Amino acid sequence: MAKRIAWVLSVCLLVALPLGCTYTPQGKTAELEQQPMVLGALLSITLLDTKDAPLLEGCYALCQEYEALLDADNPASDIARIHAAQGALTQVDARTAALIGLGLQYRQMTQGAYDITMAPLTALWGFDTGDITVPDSAQLAAAAAQVDWRNVSLNDNTVTLINDAQLDISAIARGYILDALAEYLRAQNCRGARLELGGTTLLLEASADGEQSVEIYDPFSESAALVGTAVIGEGSITTRGIYQQYMELDGKLYHSIFDPRTGVSAVTGINSVTVFTSSATQGEALGYASLVLGEAEALALIESLPGVEALFCMQTGALVSSSGMGTAIPFTEEEIVG
Q1: Are strands 309-314 and 319-321 parallel, antiparallel or unpaired?
Q2: Which CATH class name applies to 3-66+171-333?
């Protein structure tokens, strides 16, 4: 039985940041000297045109607040308390309630390609723990039957789960934190910032020159080939792909982008998708859903949303883009040599 497991991270060196945070001035910028882990992903913050260390401290403190609310592995978090309540009413922080509300909205927007109640599926497959197994049909059916957004009741800041439902907010929680950081920095009159967490980057008022270049790669191609460069001012860039957590078993690829409607890894011919939008939370939801929906349905969804563009790296090697790539989002495709 041949088995190969891979986790792909944007940065290979993981550095835990202890108390507080430090920064390294670079010209007129300030950035975290070390990259802390937030919800299992590396956080990178660069403030532009400032050396304000207390502002960085405030950013990191805010991340710690959100992690304390949203980390399902922390028994004191809102998410863990909701699960422990076993169907009883649970009072949560307004920020947690807002995220759950967004998750329910994105389920409707994507017609079920993203579902906030996927926790039974993610637990069954074991990609998050590294104890990966391929479930049998009975196990899949049982887990998939628990995936149903209608089992979530949200009333102001009170949450109730029924029918043994469990929440999995991991697909959008990091983007939600980035959006909160951007809101905090704007309130502090920050002139510009580059925020990165997991596979999402959020640019706040871009750079002093007004634009930044973003290189897009196809990690499943030979040598992770550069496919093109986009130029954006302010906004969110999210890249999701089947390469981020996957396993090959007996010649078959299994990955952690599950179709909530079937319980198995989505097979749509897309290696990765990069979504450009104003909201990092929305970008993460759309990135996940696009990999589940496939090219035609995903493009139709993207085109229906104002201010959203996307670029798909297909398993055939082709690039597929929404209508605004190249115009609303300047994009230069890399010339393939050979």
Answers
A1: antiparallel
A2: alpha beta
Q: Which residue pairs, CB below 8 angstroms and at least 24 apart, start in 28-37? A: 28/208, 30/55, 30/56, 31/56, 32/56, 32/60, 35/11, 36/60, 36/63
With 0-12 CB in 10 A as exposed, 13-18 as middle and 19+ as buried, what is 30?
A: buried
Percent of the chain with pLDDT over 90: 50
From the options 3.30.390.10, 1.10.3980.10, 3.50.50.60, 1.10.10.60, give the CATH code of 73-168: 1.10.3980.10
Q: What is the pLDDT of residues 231-242, one digit of tens each?
A: 888 899 999 987
What is the pLDDT at residue 31? 64
Closest CA relative to residue 175, chosen from 192, 206, 197: 197
Query: Strands, DSSP E only, in 48-142?
Result: 90-91
Instruction: Map out the domains of the chain as residue ranges.
Output: 3-66+171-333, 73-168
pLDDT (tens digit, 9 = 90+) per residue, 36-59? 889 999 999 888 767 778 888 899
User: CA 217 from chain center: how many Å?
Assistant: 17
Say if CB 247 and CB 235 are below 8 A apart. no
Strand partners, 152: 161
215: confidence class by pLDDT, cuts 50, 70, 90: confident
User: Which of 263-301 are b and which e, b meaning 16 or more Cβ less than 10 Å from the residue's Cβ?
Assistant: bbbbbbebbbbbbbbebbbbbbbbbbbbbbbbbebbbeb
CB 181 within 8 A of CB 63: yes
- Burial (CB count <10 Å: 0-12, 13-18, 19+), residue 151: middle
Structure tokens at 145: 């039957």
Q: How far apart are the first and last CA of the chain?
A: 36
Tell me the C-alpha to C-alpha distance, in Å, between residue 94 and each of 3, 99, 145, 183, 194: 44, 9, 29, 16, 26
Q: What is the pTM of this model?
A: 0.87
Rounded to an integer, what distance in angstroms lies between the CA atom of residue 106 and that of residue 172?
10
Task: Look over the chain and give the mean of its residue pLDDT values, rounded to a whole number.
Answer: 83
**How many CB atoms neighbour CB 230 within 10 A?**
21
